[in-house]
Amino acid sequence: MGNKFSCLFAGSINLATAIGIDNMSKLTLNVLTKSIWVFHAACSPCNNCDIEILDALTPRYDLERFGIVLAGSIRHADALLVTGVPNKKTAPRIKLLYEQMPKPGVVIAVGTCSCGGNIFRHSYNFVKPLDEIIPVNAYIPGCPPKPEAIIMGVVKLVKALRRGNK
Amino acid sequence: MNYIYNYLVFPGFLFAGFCGMLASFIDRKITARLQWRKGPPLFQPFYDFIKLLGKETVLPSGVSKSIFLISPLVGLSAMTLVSTILWLGLLYSKGFAGDLLVLIYLMTIPSISVIIAGFSSKNPIASIGASREMKLILGYELPFIFSILVVIIKANSIKLSDIINYQILNGPVLNSISGVLAFIIAIFCIQAKMGIVPFDISEAEQEIIAGPFIEYSGPPLGIFKLTRWMMLFVVPSFIVATFFPAKTFSGNIFRYLILLVIVTLIRNTNPRIRIDQAIRFFWVHCTVLSFIAVILALFGK
């Protein structure tokens, strides 16, 4: 089910306003979409999505072609890649991480868990879905999504960002 | 007026920044090809830099704002000055007595700015990175100065343009046994100076995330990155000037590119070492070897 290259979007909300780029120059936006530094926040996942994200960064898929690099510190990041279900432990921390990220920055939910809770949504420690804690710009469903699906999601997000600024 | 032009445009800021970005691209591309990848596009460092200029600067709570924000500029201005003095000497034989020593001292200032940045950002990981950088400076400075001492003994001058003219007339320092020894030591030392892989202990991504830069974001981080890229251009070209300079601009650039490829190959074929291993490597092996090189140079070998 998750193997389809599907990538849903946050409907008709104004993406540019959501991430704070509405009064940004076109040059800055263009270079922003050409050099995305990714911070990978594992929000209590089962690690399958993390393995797929790492696969997407390996030489086989070579995301450095598009300027995508894994950043170690959230302060260097332009994109927050969240995997897993936010629970009572990780929900405050993911909120803190989002607040620490220098804007403009995007949030990408990878995997069905972070998109909506998956099978854990009735669990005792489930708080609320990720997009009710922090604003999410792109959803990449799949359990886990393939590296191709992750790349597809990032490409769609980049295209939407560029379109939103015109 | 001319000096301002030199500092800001030609052998100074714009020139070194541009060449540094290209050098960073070449470094990343060679790395990618060695890992059987395609690698980033040509203007990737430019994109990175302009993007960082457009981002928000997050100030951690409780830091000294002025020190936190000024320390990147300290390193950048020192590196620009090194580039100006060095390339004026290489291209036009301009300079003053003792400019070689000035260059050696100025080249440690970017490391010192990294240390100040690390300690001022009030983060335990940044402090670890800064203290490692400090130990690393203590490690590599002595063998580096010894290996430059070989050149000074050979050319019998501490003026950069005299050293270059001597080598153009009498053949490069690299043609002698002591020269080769000193050159090898100097390559290890610049590897540590530029903070690239076997000696990137202070900003080891996998263990202490980004070391001293962990709290930096936006334009200050961009300035730190720019300083690193300029170092990737300026420090190897200092080695070119002291060990095997050419008469023409293109010759110097060609020799610099050879050195850059050597540095990148060392970076890609070696794992990171621990700080105690690095100190032992520099103080025991490199210092002894460079001391032998100095003695050989005194005997004219």
Describe the structure.
The complex is a heterodimer of chains A (166) and B (301). Helices cover 37% and strands 14% of the residues of chain A. Chain A contains seven helices and six strands, in the order βααβαββαβααβα. Chain A has helices at 15-19, 26-34, 48-56, 90-100, 112-116, 130-133, 147-164, and strands spanning 8-9, 37-42, 69-70, 79-83, 106-110, 138-140. A six-stranded mixed β-sheet of chain A has the order 1-6-5-4-2-3. In chain A, α3 crosses α7 (147-164). Chain A is globular and about 45 Å long. By secondary structure, chain B is mostly helical. In chain B, 74% of the residues lie in helices and 0% in strands. Chain B contains 13 helices and no strands. Chain B has helices at residues 2-8, 13-34, 44-53, 65-92, 99-106, 109-120, 124-155, 160-170, 177-194, 205-208, 219-243, 249-269, 275-298. In chain B, α7 (124-155) packs antiparallel against α9. Chain B is globular and about 60 Å long. Chain B starts with a helix and ends with a helix. The interface between A and B is medium-sized, with 23 and 31 residues.
